[in-house]
Design goal:
The chain is about 30% helix and about 20% strand. It has helices at about 40-45, 75-100, 110-120, 165-175, 195-205, and strands spanning about 5, 10-15, 25-30, 50-55, 60, 65, 105-110, 130, 150-155, 180-185. The relative contact order is 0.14. The structure holds D-malate. D-malate binds next to α3. D-malate binds near residues 30, 69, 110 and 161.
Length: about 210
């Protein structure tokens, strides 16, 4: 059973899990995606888990995103901050409504970027994160204490949207905050590969 509902502040989809012993997943799609996009990926990486999947609220010329950026690609920092807090509030309400524990985020591209922002600004919101093709384009310090929080970050060495050194900087910053970071650079572009899925599934299986 699953639902797509316009309530709790975000259009979203909730899929109850078959395995109550496993953490739920918070799916955060990439630019132009929606709440359905990452479901097949989640089923490959974490079969049987509950899934909470909101749709980003920003409309960039018809493409759905989680925060605004200028036409030349520069992130709107105020919007980024405010949308992060709004997403955290949605997560609090959704956890109460669906009676689920603290999720692990699974974000791709724009969704992975707001996922790391959640980790830094609302460190109690998530129990971990899988970040596919994420980057940090500015210095987000001061950093919270993320000791014990597991993070998987996977970059592509010829990703034209996410410079690999910006992904590496994010891995370093999360490590500086104390997170238990696994950082992988694949011979890949912006799109996900079989290797992303395999590494994601292995990492998630080791969270038990
Ligand atoms: C972003 O704006 O979050 C990144 O540039 C990735 C994307 O193009 O969505």
């Amino acid at each position: 059973m699953s639902t797509t509902q316009p309530d709790l502040g975000f259009i979203h989809r909730f899929v109850p899990g078959r395995d109550a012993g496993r953490p739920p997943l918070l799916l955060l799609h990439g630019t132009g995606g929606d709440e359905n996009d990452l479901l097949p990926l989640a089923n490959r990486i974490a079969p049987g888990c509950s899934i909470l999947s909101p749709r980003g609220k920003v409309n960039e010329q018809g493409l759905t995103r989680f925060f605004r950026r200028s036409p030349d690609g520069v992130w709107d920092r105020d919007d980024f901050n405010q949308r992060t807090l709004e997403l955290a509030e949605f997560l609090r309400q959704a956890r109460a409504a669906y009676q689920i524990g603290k999720p692990i985020a699974l974000g791709y591209s724009n969704g992975a970027n707001i996922a790391w922002s959640l980790l830094l600004k609302e460190p109690d919101a998530l129990s971990g994160a899988m970040l596919f093709r994420a980057m940090v384009p500015f210095d987000p310090r001061p950093l919270p204490d993320l000791h014990g929080v597991p993070v998987l970050l996977i970059a592509g060495d010829h990703d034209t949207l996410i410079p690999v050194e910006r992904a590496g900087l994010l891995a370093a910053l999360l490590g500086e905050a104390g997170a238990d970071v696994t950082y992988e650079v694949l011979h890949a572009a912006h799109g996900l590969t079989e290797q992303d899925l395999t590494l994601g599934a292995e990492w998630f299986a080791s969270r038990r």
